[in-house]
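User: Fold this; tokens only.

Assistant: Input:
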Amino acid sequence: MIGGSVADPALRLSRIEKHYGSTVAVAGIDLDVAEGEFVTLLGPSGCGKTTTLGLIAGFFPPTAGEIYLKGKPVADLPSFRRDIGVVFQDYALFPHMTAAENVAFGLRMRKVGSAQAAKRVQDALDLVKLGGLGDRRPLQLSGGQRQRVALARALVINPAVLLLDEPLSNLDLKLREEMRVEIVSIQRRLGITTVFVTHDQGEALVMSDRIAVMNQGRIEQLGDAASIYEAPATRFVAEFIGRMNLFTGTVTAERGVRIGDSTFGIEVPPQMAPGAAVHVAIRPERARLSAARPSEGVALAGTVRQVFYLGATREVHVDLAHGEKGFVELRNDGSDAGVQAGSAVWLSAAASNCRVLPAAAPGGRP
């Protein structure tokens, strides 16, 4: 799949593949990343995102394709000759070195003079708010502080591209949320081109200029957070980004969709012919429950199975009359107070909140 074209990209992947024997880890990726852009590779374990990051970093060569940095091909260059900074999931700090010595390591390898290196190390530690902790060793630092040292070490060499390999996964929830803001703030301040790898959809939605959702070694969809969330292109993307009701339907001759015994006038993509099997995707926060059948949009009869209290919201699970199941997210604002297990309801959504997707084939691809 084409990953999107950018004029004069800082980073370009052109038909990149990586095979391990008969196993295809990366299956022909095209991706352009603009100067100063923050792009996230998002997907489940085994989708190829970390392998793609390793190919960009030069940890191993691609089986096919080319990688360009600032317009120059680098697929045959070793990692130490690429102008790239990397932050690893486990930080990869040298335990016998101080924080300042860890940050200075890349400068030593580049034979930067001691006076200049000392200033750049201090500036990098100040940037990540560790200015007074340069003499501490990794074991004397918290997880969040070690992560900041790893970030400073990647930034101190002034790389053309910064690669982040799930750097927040070892932090607790509160610190992870704080570090999201810190990383984006630093990235924006420096204007550094960044590729971030994560399986956490919340991180991707909050931090990214664009998200490349990966599945089975390919980019399944590329776009900004709003377009990925609001207009998923496939069932896989719809289910992986946020939560989604997916109802099985068939395109009718009148270009509507039939679900169970009812036909609904919702927009069907032009490439879907009458008789095509589809899914109607509805976000639970965009769905409604009512005792009477709404006159417009999609409306499916059912019975409330369970209600879960979640603080500001309730999650209501419904057994639908045509045999499928659905769920709705309701705000605890006093409305819909009568919804309880056993209630007969209509699960509905406005036509504008319904998206028709091609049915998924075995293996999860449309």
